[in-house]
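Thanks for the sequence, V.! I ran Tail specific protease domain-containing protein right away. Repeating your input here for the record:
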Amino acid sequence: MIRFIALLLCSTSLLSAQKMFPADAAQEAAEEIYLEIKERHPYPATIAGLRALDSARTQVQKQLAARVNGHDSIAYHEFVGLVSPLQEATNCGHLILGPYLDSVANREIRENNFPLYLIQIETGEYVLHSGISTATDSLSPGTVVTALNGENIKTVIGQIAPFSGINDDKNDEALLYKVARAPMFLYQTYYGIQDSIIITIRNETGPENRTVFPKMVPYTDPKKSKTPIAKTLDFKFSEDGETGILKIKKFSSYKFTDGNYYRFIRQVFDTLKTTGTDQLIIDIRDNGGGNSGRINHLYQFLTDKKFYFTAEARMTGPARAQANDDAKTIRRLEAGAVSRRDRRLQRRLTKPLKPVKKKLRYDGKVVVLINPVSFSASGIFARMVQGSGRGKLVGDVSGASAAIMYGASKQGDPILIGPSDDFELKVNTIGLIPQYPASGNITPDYIVKPTLAGIKAGKDEQMEKAMEIVKQ
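Predicted structure:
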């Protein structure tokens, strides 16, 4: 729904700086996106899912026809916004479309780093979540930001957000939260590398402009190079020494220069047992997910029962049946996997998992901190803890669905869309039903949204609530 706001508010000054897409290629590109989703994604493999996708296709065709009529080109962000109903129809926040970046362009943007981190507060305004240095001064957390390069900040975020992920079940609030947290990478994929930006702030005397220059930060891809373990994992005790705090920034299969994920987690629980600490907070805020083996390993220390990473895994469905299919193929379609490889993967994902031995198990109180970007594998872990009754969730509603999430197996070459490989489409291929499914998005037992007063005071209000709950 946010795409309509973005299109209505779009101005000619903003479009002049945009990457442009040929109008006569728009319909063909949209059809290609539709077909890739239809053939690869598990959602339209169901009869109802295919109907929803087909309805979205009709909507997209009409919207594109109206927009490109009489025009030679449209802005990249307009095209993505106009075809975003195809993503919304699947309810899948793993389904992502954006300007294609090769490895060189990706590195250039990441190294041209603008430390602009925003968060929307209770008034609906965007403020600095952390301080930022400008050409003339430094701005404190909580400073209201009203515009970026002369455009209303809500407009800018609304334009670049569609089809960018983390919005299962059409959770646009999570989508906007994710983009606002660090908007400049996505902004530069649409507008190109920026030598500087102008942010408009509001203070007691009215609006004022500030120029911000990028900080050149060497980029190391953690998927290809080893990084210090402290960039991903951290464990410490609270100030009173009564609560262990485990921060996991990512569950991805990163390799570290000075440690190992599995040994680190084991050492955390060994430390908790040795010190007799019976209170643990696991902070997975801003953790976008990763490897199933890593969340399984973590949860093995928290439970005394067998558990499942997923109760059901689906890669296909009845909507993909052909007229000449035999009875066995029809049954396999209904069961969600036809090929031998997919059935083997299905069995592996749904096999029961054992807890660690009793002497290693942690029996203390557990609170898990989540926010809208606690997604994918992080969402699955949070739902394991909550659904099993093992612990409480504190924070803000996740972008992840509590009913089904979508994982991926290796897909080979990127899916490129457009006559000049203008866009890249990312499609996950496995539907994962959690062991404890629920309707809607994963919702904390205690919802705590950061307030302006808290941000200005440098407080972590969600952590404070988690500390209160774990001590009860």
